[in-house]
Backbone:
């Protein structure tokens, strides 16, 4: 009797990156969903850095920031980042939006990974965040000032972080595009399809 492999899924990716692929983007850019999609399409390991910090500390990101200040969170984030980037086999890592504000983290990411900046225009980001808050009231970022936060404030914060993101090896424009399309483009650029 012949073996029939209809529906067989080989979870071993045909191509392994030599070093991890890290994704960065501003709030609402969707880089976490894009990273998850990339991992699903390739079978590569996937880590969302904020979730890794939560697992390691036993606290949510919001709790860490509110109770211990942003510095406490950034210390935990830097520790987890160093560990995650050295794990093998290399996989896909979605960084937190502010992970590259720390010069040490920027150097580590530059030396230990291929950084991909998932870019969206500020008005697209703001619209995506507003839509998320409407769909999921109470979801999002407890330390992120929802009330009174105007588009000018949003653009200024976005510009501050974007200066760190511009150091990326690749920049992909995700404005108006789905996670599936952006993930497919990145995989093609990295020759991981």
Residues:
């Amino acid at each position: 009797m012949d073996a029939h492999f209809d529906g067989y899924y080989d979870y071993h990716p045909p191509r392994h990156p030599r070093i991890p692929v890290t994704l960065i983007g501003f709030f609402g850019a969707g880089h976490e969903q894009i990273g998850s999609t990339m991992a699903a399409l390739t079978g590569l390991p996937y880590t969302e850095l904020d979730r890794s910090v939560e697992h390691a500390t036993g606290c949510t990101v919001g709790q860490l920031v509110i109770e211990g200040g942003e510095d406490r969170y950034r210390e935990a984030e830097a520790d987890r980042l160093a560990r995650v980037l050295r794990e093998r086999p290399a996989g896909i890592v979605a960084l937190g939006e502010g992970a590259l504000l720390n010069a040490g983290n920027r150097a580590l990411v530059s030396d230990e990974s291929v950084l991909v900046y998932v870019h969206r225009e500020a008005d697209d980001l703001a619209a995506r965040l507003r839509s998320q808050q409407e769909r999921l009231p109470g979801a999002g970022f407890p330390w992120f000032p929802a009330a009174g936060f105007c588009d000018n404030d949003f653009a200024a914060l976005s510009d501050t972080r974007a200066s760190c993101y511009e150091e990326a090896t690749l920049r992909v424009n995700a404005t108006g595009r789905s996670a599936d399309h952006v993930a497919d483009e990145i995989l093609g650029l990295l020759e991981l399809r």
User: Anything to note?
Assistant: The longest strand covers residues 114-119. The chain has a mean pLDDT of 84.
